[in-house]
Amino acid sequence: MRALVTGGAGFIGSHLVEHLLDLGATVRVADNLEMGHLGNLDAVRSGIDFHECDVTHLDRVEALCNDIDVVFHFAANASVPRSVEEPEKDFSANVISTANVLIAARDAGIRRIVLASSAGVYGQPKEEPITESTPTAPISPYGGSKLACEGLCQGYARAYGYEVVAARIFNSYGPRQPRYIIHDFYHKLRQDPTRLEILGDGKQVRDFLHVSDTVRAIAHLADVACEYGFDYYNISSGRAVSVVDLAHIMIEAMELEGVELEFTGKSWVGDAPNWVPSPAKLRATGWEPRLSLEQGVADTIQWFDEHAGSKG
Fold it and tell me: What CA–CA distance (Å, rounded) separates 274 from 269?
């Protein structure tokens, strides 16, 4: 496989680059380094073709797509709060970049694109579990832009004859994670091991999947059948836990005692209260997660401890 990974210096993107190399792929990486870090690629830098560029510029994407079999499109704004504060930048980073990838892939004759989409396309569904047939109803500019990306992919795939698969990623976590709840809990507890502030009431429900399992799923999507030119899959573990339960898992893994949990009573705009997804469709293709939440959290804490003070 000759693969292009846009956003390949980011959290999930850099892990995907490593995994593709392990599979024997030739990998080209593009990242503007606004949110990603070259340090995320230190272990593989000599084995990849890296380009510092912004995929919101079509001419740059066209050059990147030469001699490529599969594009894994991860270049995007991945922050819901940022999308609320700067919706115009969210639209450009997500929708314009996706259109450019689709156009360049068409012109280069690329057979398959895997889009990093998001659970944000669902908003807050009324039904559980969330399946791929659950109606989409975004509650943030980010969720809306990701749904727009999926719409573009579906239209382009059917018009031009290539195949696009959207990975609706829920809560991925692990080494090099630069933000989000597990990252935040860890740093709060290392700063003050006696108390932990939690946004909202702690009853929010999420599905956490270790990044190693996330990238295994995403690489797998490069080969799954795509009968109608476009398809989408939930990328999740199948185990939903409350934020409070996650806090207790982390406290135990960090060997802390007597931690007082404090709740803010409110969260940020666009934060869905409950996500209980089903990965049944993905599992039917032969993929299964390998790490439990407890194992994955322990792995992540160990990495944070070993890389204290580094970016990520």
Answer: 14
